[in-house]
Known about the structure:
Elements: E1 2-7, H1 11-23, E2 28-33, H2 36-45, E3 50-54, H3 62-67, E4 70-74, E5 82-83, H4 86-92, E6 97-104, E7 114-121, H5 126-149, E8 166-167, H6 179-184, H7 187-196, E9 204-207, E10 213-216
Parallel strand pairs: 1-2, 1-3, 3-4, 5-8
Antiparallel strand pairs: 4-6, 6-7, 9-10
Helix pairs in contact: 1-5, 4-7
Amino acid sequence: MKTVLFCAYREWALEIYDYIKERYVDKADLKLVKTENDFKKTIVRVKPDLILFVWWSWIVSRDIVDKYRCVCLHPSPLPKYRGGSPLQHQIISGEKESAVTLFVMNERLDAGPIVWQEAFSLDGDLDMIFSRVMEKGKKGVSKVMEMALKDDEIKGVAQDESKATSFRRRTPAQSEISASDFRDCTAEQLYNKIRALQDPYPNAFIVCKDNTKLKIQKAKVGK
């Protein structure tokens, strides 16, 4: 039986874990870790055949990537939108479509060979988008599991560096909608920013009198 370390903490990512655990209950020993500290403790006592990072927020050290088979799920059409806050950056940029990508990790951030990639729509509220990511993720992670269980080499297609774009993780301060935004942005651009920053992310906000903040979680574009 293969030992698989499943690294995830977001609600939708844990639903992928539950799905994979049930599907492969007789074929793989899945061990879930939710924090960087848990990972460091677990990797010392467990020698996994595969490590899955499902939208993991912490940097994975080079020695781990070199020693183990590590595959990461990233919600963007890599090589575009590498780095932090990929969904938020795509929605705010006005993208209409994204993709769930699974890739073999290497020493560079989100730059390893692509094993599997499938598109999904960025239309609607963030919870709808997460649901699409979850369903695509189940499909992609299942493909990687099948390869690992058959002892197939998990290889992928090299990313086209000429098409690569990278972004930093967004900060809470970037969720502000300022007076200049109302002058310079279209209604659709502000709508995209608001829906990209729905829970569980730092919501869009307007600074009001006495430095109070009005948080905005829902919006729609009208005439």
